[in-house]
Design a protein that fits this description.
globular, ASD1_cat, EC 3.2.1.55, alpha/beta, binds alpha-L-arabinofuranose, 498 residues
């Protein structure tokens, strides 16, 4: 197999908003409890925040983390999660059928985020609640002082406002599984009224309206058109969510899923622009792909779980090498739409469908998907360049014209570096890649990182945490204006030149 890419600094998709390397912590399973927070753990600080997990989060350089849900937020009484811990209420948590102790709450998460060098993307409950609770939490969080809610925050020990800028207007409100699910009309109305009062409290907010829960929802994309009809002038972003699985063990199709994801994004860009035209608006609607990942390994185990325990292991997918390849393809797909996707959240961050796993009282380790995310987050900042790709293609039963090569380059002008991200989707053959660097002048190779494994189903575990990990012995060479490399079958590659 042979493929080529032209990379030209004048052909720019868009500036990469670093927030596309966001992630997500939901009150679900062991994400909070025994994930980011475990008092008594050997690495915990005075607030009970696990230092080993914090170290891995910092390694990923995650710029923003969505909180507190997810489905959880549609039953969230935010007032339960602030104030003296001893007085906090234990609640039945209906989204995931557990008991929420509220021992860890809103302010603790803000503290965690500060320590992790990340911003908070906060969500309000538009399932059981609405505009009133939404305006109150914004006042509690962002108003300086002199009112009931802002002074309550100060009384709780937070003199300075949290100044959280990005807020989600509910979560997956089209889903029948959602507490307080709504029709597009009902949600559009609820969202616009919440948006208005939230911005009246703090006009600097950036708001995200819920798009469809996934591209298979029967109401997609009418949902988006109706919701935007109501909210277009009041929100900055429309959300997208999508997970993929390989339960049929058809890896060729599985690795092609990012082609579907690309179509999904194109459809939503078109839908946003349709509403823009209808409204004769000058404003461009941006996308927040605030849940994306592989999710299916844990479905069977979760279906058997008894309800009403505290922080049980839920959604604990153990990721394989092939999952890391699809995550790499999904990251490249996000970069291809850097002009419209301004935020994205790998769902989630710790234990729950996550790149970071922990054991209670034990260690923390990197899952396979940690690595493509790490590389993209660290090296994928700058300008995403138009991917001019020639690649042989394959067909599956459901997806046709799938290029063996998935690739994009990002130009970091400040550092004078170009990074080519590339996945070889072929499960049988290596792929000879040539990258034409034309406008960049003579370059030299910095490194060629490769994630490869003979076993597509290989995983990392606490006892074998380095089974799947990248090496820096890729064979790329740079000859003046051209990179040549032989990409191993089923591999993720990061080729950095200067
Ligand atoms: O991330 C797990 C769940 O997936 C979220 O709670 C929900 O929004 C989505 O369905």
């Amino acid at each position: 197999l042979k493929a080529s890419v032209i990379v030209d600094k004048d052909f720019v998709v868009g500036e990469v908003d670093k927030r596309i390397y966001g992630s997500f912590i939901e009150h679900l399973g062991r994400a909070v409890y025994n994930g980011i927070y475990e008092p008594g753990h050997g690495t915990a600080d005075e607030q009970g925040l696990r230092g080993d997990v914090m170290g891995l989060v910092k390694e990923l350089q995650v710029p923003i983390v969505r909180y507190p849900g997810g489905n959880f937020v549609s039953g969230y009484n935010w007032e339960d999660s602030v104030g003296p811990v001893a007085q906090r209420k234990r609640r039945l948590e209906l989204a995931w059928r557990t008991i929420e102790t509220n021992e860890f709450g809103f302010n603790e998460f803000v503290d965690w985020a500060r320590k992790a060098n990340t911003d908070v993307m906060m969500a309000v409950n538009l399932g059981t609640r609405g505009a009133d609770a939404a305006r109150n939490i914004v006042e509690y969080s962002n108003h300086p002082s002199g009112t009931y809610w802002s002074d309550l925050r100060r009384q709780h020990g937070y003199e300075q406002p949290h100044n959280i800028k990005v807020w989600c207007l509910g979560n997956e409100m089209d889903g029948p599984w959602q507490i307080g699910a709504k029709t597009a009309e009902e949600y559009g109305r609820a969202a616009v009224e919440a948006a208005k009062v939230m911005k009246w409290v703090d006009p600097t907010l950036e708001l995200v309206a819920c798009g469809s829960s996934n591209l298979n929802m029967a109401t997609f994309p009418d949902w988006e058109a109706t919701v935007l009809d109501h909210t277009y002038n009041h929100v900055e972003y429309l959300s997208m969510h999508q997970y993929y699985g390989n339960s049929d063990d058809d890896t060729r199709t599985f690795l092609a899923r990012s082609v579907e994801m690309d179509d999904f994004i194109r459809t939503l860009v078109a839908t946003c622009d349709f509403v823009k035209a209808k409204k004769r608006s000058k404003k461009t609607m941006y996308l927040s792909f605030d849940e994306w990942n592989v999710w299916y390994h844990s479905h069977a185990a979760d279906a058997k779980r008894e309800p009403w325990s505290i922080a049980p292991p839920q959604l604990e997918d153990v990721y394989t090498h092939e999952d890391a390849l699809l995550v790499g393809c999904m990251l490249i797909t996000l970069l291809k739409h850097a002009d419209r996707i301004k935020m994205a959240c790998l769902a989630q961050l710790v234990n729950v469908i996550a790149p970071i796993m922990t054991s209670n009282g034990g260690g923390a380790w990197r899952q396979t998907i940690f690595y493509p995310f790490l590389h993209a987050s660290v090296y994928g900042r700058g300008k995403a360049l138009v991917p001019l790709i020639q690649s042989p293609k394959y067909d599956t039963k459901t997806i046709t014209d799938v290029p063996y090569l998935e690739s994009i380059a990002v130009y970091n002008e400040e550092a004078g570096e170009v990074t080519v991200f590339a996945v070889n989707r072929s499960l049988e053959e290596s792929l000879a890649l040539e990258v034409d660097l034309r406008s960049f002048g003579k370059c030299r190779l910095i490194e060629h990182l490769v994630l490869q494994h003979e076993d597509l189903k290989a995983v990392n575990t606490e006892n074998n945490p380095d089974n799947v990990k990248p090496h820096a012995n890729g064979n790329a060479t740079v000859d003046g204006l051209k990179i040549s490399a032989q990409l191993a079958k089923a591999s993720w590659n990061v080729i950095r030149v200067k």
